[in-house]
Amino acid sequence: MARTWGWRRAGAASIGILLLAAAACGGSIDTSSDGGLAEPATLEDELAAWTPPPAPEVASIDRRPVMLGQLGGPDAFVITVDEIDGTISRFESWSYFDARTQIDFVDGEVLWDLEIDDVPDGTYLPLLYSPMEFEMLASVGATLASLDDVELVRVDDGDGLDEPGSELWAGEQLVLGFADDQLVYVETMPLAAGEPEAGS
């Protein structure tokens, strides 16, 4: 490092001697690009060439356990998946009928809350299920095995879903939708007194 710094100092001194000599002789030094001395970059040039660093990735925080601790499990819920910018995201809507509130999540983050109507008296709520127990994109076999105490039957050839190769299973106030052997839709359904259940 000492040799490099000494070379730079010697070079600067030599340029200074040349400039003084030229001034004494009434001459000038060519400072164009061909002459070897470049024009200093302006602030505008530096700003134009500046590229901002990429924004740091911020990990999402799962707020669902907090909601479960504060409000308890939802009275009913819907879970879907969708692809955004090449990434599969999980969308959830939790309904609390006594509070007339629906809370929507994306990948565990609270998106917003909405006011909803209450359900009629005597409605059977699907409190058997928790949104946390469903692994989206799981296979039909794995999903049904995790719900082995729930009586589910296949009720549709895919008309209820927009994806090809889809199928629906329903029973005990639960509807499951699969596309290409992957779970992509879950809904728990309140059942009014005297109303027939899906799949029955």
- What is the overall number of helices? 4
Give the strand line-up of the largest sheet. 4-3-2-1-8-7-6-5
Give the strand content.
Answer: 25-35%
How many separate domains?
2
Taking the alpha carbons of the first and last residues, their distance comes to: 84 Å
Largest sheet: 8 strands, antiparallel
Structural class: alpha+beta
Q: How confident is the prediction overall: mean pLDDT?
A: 77
Radius of gyration from CA coordinates: 34 Å
Structural write-up:
The chain has 200 residues and is of the alpha+beta class. The chain has 2 domains: 2-49, no CATH class; 64-188, no CATH class. The chain has 4 helices and 8 strands. The chain has helices spanning 2-24, 43-49, 64-71, 140-146; strands at 76-84, 87-96, 101-106, 109-115, 153-156, 166-171, 174-179, 182-188. It has an 8-stranded antiparallel sheet with strand order 4-3-2-1-8-7-6-5, with no helix packed on it. The longest helix has 23 residues, at 2-24. It starts with a helix and ends in a 12-residue tail after the last strand.
